Amino acid sequence: MPTLAIEIADAALDAAVGDALVASSPGIALLDPAGITVGAAAAASARLKPLLVMDRFWSGLSTQPLARALPEARTPADLAWLHVRQLHAQAGADADAVILAVPSSWREAELGLVAGIAGAAGLPLGGIVDSAVAGCAGLEAGYRVLHLDVDLHQSTLVALEGEQTLVRREVGVATRVGLRALMGACAQVVGESMVRRTRFDPLHQAASEQALHDALPGWLESVAATGRTEAALDFGGRRFAVELHRDECTLAAEAWYTQLADLVATTARGEPVTLVMTRRAAMLPGLAERLARAAGSAPVALPAGAAAFGALAHGSTIRSDGALALVTGLPRGCPAARPVQPAGGARATHLVHGGVAHTLEAEPLVIGSDPAAP
């Protein structure tokens, strides 16, 4: 019987078996008194019934009562159980073991809860591994790796390092940089462009707003890859189309991109690093180019479900027949040598002031409003 790996993030659950991504389910629930829906069905109605949407049950995994509790789901853990159970059914429930790849920001409380949720959902839980470690262990990369994921409500940057074994070292979180805010900003760009060029406002009605948000991820991936794409909606028997450019999206996301660039620069500390971006992060137009300057090299983009596939590849290391423990280090597929420090100690390369990293070069660096002042 096969092993099933499930990558957990608040944006989505991804399930993999062998070399196939067999299921992917958005981390959204619709708390309709007529019946709770989770995953893709909930996402397809999120703009139609916004007051019934709950999308923080994974990022806020707990047993605290929901503000809008229903008999079938009184806590975020109940919604997570419904979500896992549905994904397990979609992926095929005949696996002999299930490995969970979990967010690096989770603590013992969340890990204990997810183990209990898996058991209650009927999953034969065989191991738990850090998602960043699982996603990066098989890469050909430098000694030090930075793994960036932009999730639904926050972004996480994980510092990993090691020669033969890749080990998690630091976890940094940008709590206000998430897909929900970034997607909303890009949707506004498309909406305003359509109003200017076609007189049609796709954000005026719930049905057209839902159609826009359904199509938006594909548009953004195309813009990130080619610099521009046609954003077109068929509505009311008519077709409305505008051209969406990378610069428009980058400008709309500038405040959030700046926070991520600062986080990368501060964590890199001027040392050689390989920056790795999940597919969610890599699909954001202009972000890879912006972070390349902060990291000192072009980022590596991971495929969808990379942590789930990494968990399967290292299943024998992760799986446990006894008490479950979070695995935060895995053997590297391509060993990396530790960088050699120059004699006399490494020279400082950056100065961090006010949350911004400034490169130290031959020219004087002035902090202040009057460089001529004594």
How would you describe this protein?
The mean pLDDT is 92. With 374 residues, the chain is an alpha/beta fold. Helix 2 packs across helix 3 and helix 8 runs parallel beside helix 10. It has twelve helices and 19 strands. The protein is 34% helix and 27% strand. A hairpin with a 4-residue loop joins strand 9 and strand 10.
List the helices and strands and how they pair.
Elements: E1 3-8, E2 12-17, E3 20-26, E4 29-32, E5 35-38, H1 40-43, E6 53-54, H2 76-91, E7 97-102, H3 108-120, E8 125-130, H4 131-136, E9 144-150, E10 155-161, E11 165-174, H5 179-198, H6 206-226, E12 228-235, E13 238-245, H7 246-252, H8 254-268, E14 274-277, H9 279-282, H10 287-295, E15 300-301, H11 306-313, H12 315-318, E16 326-327, E17 329-331, E18 350-353, E19 356-359
Parallel strand pairs: 1-7, 7-8, 8-16, 9-14, 14-15
Antiparallel strand pairs: 1-2, 2-3, 4-5, 4-6, 9-10, 10-11, 11-17, 12-13, 18-19
